[in-house]
Amino acid sequence: MTGYYYLVDAGYPNAKGFLVPYRGQRYHLQEWRGAENAPSTSKEFFDMKHSSARNVIERAFDVLKGRWVILRKKSYYPVEVQCRTILACCLLHNLINREMTTFDIVDDIDEVDFTHATSVAHDIHYIETSNEWTQWRDDLAEEMFSEWVLRNQ
């Protein structure tokens, strides 16, 4: 699979564009602490990595939302535009942190203007589970686990 997808929690179906953890497996990072709690299956390993990635993403978004108003509300742009917007915010954030050692943010924006947003026709109203997407996740989990096992032998 190529393109963009959301890394989401188990409340979503495993559908195209939504990468969910496996249900019924350990998930939260504290459950993996200690050598005796190492994952023993591809599904466990996948869920551990999924949880770790979501943790990093959530912390990064907290920082970015603090700086960029456009990230604080629901976006009506197509997924590809949302991804490019987030990337641009990340790049600008890093540039500001690297180049501007003394920078006071003055935020005069009270409300975000969404008059330029796309139509409601682009909203996602229903997500259907996809066998193809499930197979891709299973293959990805097996590949990740196999590489990890080889590195740790």
TrEMBL record:
Keywords: Hydrolase, Metal-binding, Nuclease, Nucleus
Domain DDE Tnp4: 3-94
Organism the protein comes from: Cucumis melo var. makuwa
One Gene Ontology term, aspect cellular component: nucleus
InterPro entries: HARBI1-like, HARBI1_dom
Family according to the record: Belongs to the HARBI1 family.
Lineage of the organism: Eukaryota, Viridiplantae, Streptophyta, Embryophyta, Tracheophyta
Cofactor: a divalent metal cation
This protein's record includes keyword Metal-binding: yes
A GO MF label: nuclease activity
Metal-binding recorded as keyword: yes
Location within or outside the cell: Nucleus
Protein's name in the database: Nuclease HARBI1
Primary location group: nucleus
Pfam family, one: DDE_Tnp_4
PANTHER family listed in its UniProt record: PROTEIN ALP1-LIKE (PTHR22930:SF293), PTHR22930
